[in-house]
Amino acid sequence: MELDSAGKDLLFRNARSQNGWHDKPVSEAQLRQIYDLMKWGPTSANCSPARILFLITRAAKERLRPALLSANIDKTMSAPAVALIGYDLKFYDLLPRLFPHNQSARSWWAGEEKAETAAATAFRNGTRQGAYFIRAARAVGLDCGPMSGFDNARVDAEFFSGTGVRSNFLCAIGHGDSAKVFGRLPRLPFEEACGIL
Amino acid sequence: MELDSAGKDLLFRNARSQNGWHDKPVSEAQLRQIYDLMKWGPTSANCSPARILFLITRAAKERLRPALLSANIDKTMSAPAVALIGYDLKFYDLLPRLFPHNQSARSWWAGEEKAETAAATAFRNGTRQGAYFIRAARAVGLDCGPMSGFDNARVDAEFFSGTGVRSNFLCAIGHGDSAKVFGRLPRLPFEEACGIL
Predict the structure, then answer these.
(1) What parts of chain B have a pLDDT lower than 50?
(2) What interface predicted TM-score (ipTM) does this complex get?
């Protein structure tokens, strides 16, 4: 079974990063719908390290403002919701629940000597889940404006202090103003990005 | 516009990691279809660092075998195609073409003193593209078996020697044998993975 052409357009071909937003809120029900789709995406040993903080109030977004690149401030502050997509470095503590058939899975990443491997696993899988988030937001009818240009350490101190969570990237969501979308940038041809052996 | 329920099932709710494969080949046309969808996914400054090597011949897959965890050998070697999903640490050399309206973009990541930032950008965005790959493969009607459990250094030496490309994760693709799919593992409830401020 294949996705129909309208679905491919919605999720891939017509999906565009947004720079401006219509004044139309995003509901908590929509945020939950996004999570209820993205959560099914595959992660290593089902480790599911992504943690998402949705900023929907003016006060919450003001706490984010000082960490933003100046070029990103307007489009972030005007979005109805901004998702701080992070990953939990201590994801392994949940593995006894998330990977219940193998109770030794925690030991694959727990412990000081495995911290580097655990961090790479958290980052890789949390980032994959961040990409699932973008696709899921499109699937529930929302537009996205993902951004990596911000001060991660400042965001971590402001929002994730005292936890094992580290910020990864931001994704503004809402109903995009198509008049503010930039012209589409070129992509690499298959022959430059891919090979077949 | 929202993705219909069948599309949500296909891409998210019914998508399952595969452990066995039907003896039905994957065509080069399908590999190109995957890339032609995934390439549209957003990356920082359109940097598009993912590089994908599709292993479709027995000889190519045999070169991969020594790098695999023993638990992953059968399901990898029996897959009609295995995608080595990597990222190019020197992605910035293509930015004059990929981000043509700002010819200084290359300087944001080029240079020895920026190597760590460049590596994080390559890994983050290449991983996001790897997740777009998984969704795109589903969209063109293929099943996936993503795996991170392998010897990355060995894969890099075997397949990416002399380049700036580093392996990230593997994804077997084909037509999955549903009899070999494991029971679905639990996911975190919204309240544990997400917060709203």
Answers:
(1) none
(2) 0.95
